[in-house]
Amino acid sequence: MADREHLPLQKYADQLITLFQSAITSKDPAVFLYKNEARTPLFMAESLARLMCKINPGHRIEKALKAFKKPEDLLGEADHYDSFNKQFSKNKAVSKAQLDYLVKKRNKAFKKLNEKLPEKDYYQEPFNRLAAEKINFEDIKLISGIEKQIRTELKDSAGFFAKYPEKFTDLESQVHEIRRKLRWISIYSQSLQGIIVLKTQKTKPSWEKEFQSKTSLSSAFNKLPLKKGLAKHIYFNRNAFYALTYTIDRLGVIKDQAQAIEVLAKSIKKTGALVDESYIETAIKQLGVKYTEKDLMQDAHELLEKFFVTYKIHEKLL
Predict the structure, then answer these.
(1) How confident is the model over 58-101, as pLDDT tens digits?
(2) What span, in angstroms and rounded, lies between the C-alpha atoms of 270 and 96?
(3) Number of C-alpha atoms within 13 angstroms, CB side, residue 11?
(4) Which residues of the chain form beta strands (DSSP E)?
(5) What's the farthest any 2 CA atoms get from each other in the chain?
(6) Distance CA 77, CA 71 (A)
């Protein structure tokens, strides 16, 4: 029924209020938030606030949306170095000095966040502002606006890829950026809490097996919450959605592989390790891999060429 309330943004805002309040009394607030996976509700709330501001430019929650950026970035930075420290700790070719460098960078991100939290009163004001809005996502007009916005973002993602018809030349501004664009759509499917429903098609597409894997099919991102009784749902083609999450996952692997080379090379440079070749070449040797950043960019381009151009999967999602 149209008069029911569906308040996913308030739900995530309430989670953030509680989580950040709990951090106040912890010994190390930044580490507390990191260990309690604060980035998840941050991303979820941000995705919904982002949708509202895209649909209604100048919306009053725009200021609250901007507040997400700093804690999210610093938690992401800490996770970045912590993850690579854990990965490289298993590699005997990586020196203790290099690992110590990664720990130092991780702790620096925690320190910055610990300084920012009391300065911003643990972000209680923007989180409370979002919770107080009680934006009802049951509204048919709003759901239609969200569907239109998702179509726009899919089209924009394809347009972004079209700027690089031959190849990618930069990982961060091109490969990582297009993954971010696609990932928002995947996050919407979770954060909207049941508005998006997967619809099975009668015929299997020719590209189905090429854009699926056991890992991607078992991903939690493919299991969408269902909200019954809504006045309107947004229906995603199941196969196209699985192809989207597979593509995001594959780009994530490529991103991690590329960043592993970059981070390791930086650690070699910063720790003053003696090398006969470039830092990048030394990092590749330490990792024991045969691919280069150029190879990874080529893999990403070939994957996205099939997704956007050959099969036009982005046009089949909605």
Answers:
(1) 889 998 899 989 999 999 999 999 999 999 999 999 999 999 99
(2) 13
(3) 14
(4) 196-199, 234-237
(5) 70
(6) 10
